[in-house]
């Protein structure tokens, strides 16, 4: 029951969109560790060859247990990503395959991703619906994403961007 509440709470925040991979990755690592599912992101178990021995029955029981936990890890990953990304990743056979594919798709700092982060930061304007606290949280997250992509902004650049993002009125 606690697991479902944790996932529900996580889903209230940002899901994986592709541009927020770094923070999403950290959250998922914490969540899957808490659920004792993190090992399913790093290991794969294969189905034992058919047989009718006592060892086969133990092996198939262990495999079935592993498969069930792996499905839980896959479901958790899928439920914590934006709807348009689910179709791209639901085909992965294991949680490890999915984790690796997501990391490949969004983890590296490609030139395209870097441009996207810089453009988003430079073009960002405060939404009138957002409080100043929310606005500064969004700006801080963009600065953190740029820092994670190894784009260092001086304090002066950060302040100038903050001022530029405010409405004219």
TrEMBL record:
Domain of life: Eukaryota
Pfam families on file: Retrotran_gag_2
Classification via PANTHER family: OS04G0629600 PROTEIN, RNA-DIRECTED DNA POLYMERASE
Protein name stated in the entry: UBN2_3 domain-containing protein
Organism: Cephalotus follicularis
């Amino acid at each position: 029951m606690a697991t479902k509440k944790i996932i529900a709470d996580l889903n209230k925040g940002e899901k994986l969109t592709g541009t927020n991979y770094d923070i999403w990755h950290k959250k998922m690592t914490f969540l899957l560790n808490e659920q004792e599912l993190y090992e399913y992101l790093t290991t794969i178990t294969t189905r034992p060859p058919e047989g009718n021995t006592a060892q086969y029955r133990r092996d198939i029981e262990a495999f079935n247990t592993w498969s069930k936990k792996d499905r839980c890890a896959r479901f958790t990953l899928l439920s914590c990503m934006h709807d348009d990304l689910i179709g791209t990743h639901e085909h992965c056979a294991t949680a490890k395959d999915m984790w690796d594919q997501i990391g490949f798709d969004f983890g590296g700092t490609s030139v395209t991703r870097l441009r996207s982060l810089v453009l988003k930061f430079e073009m960002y304007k405060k939404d009138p619906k957002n409080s100043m606290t929310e606005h500064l949280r969004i700006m801080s997250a963009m600065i953190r994403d740029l820092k994670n992509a190894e784009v260092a902004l001086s304090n002066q650049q950060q302040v100038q961007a903050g001022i530029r993002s405010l409405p004219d009125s």
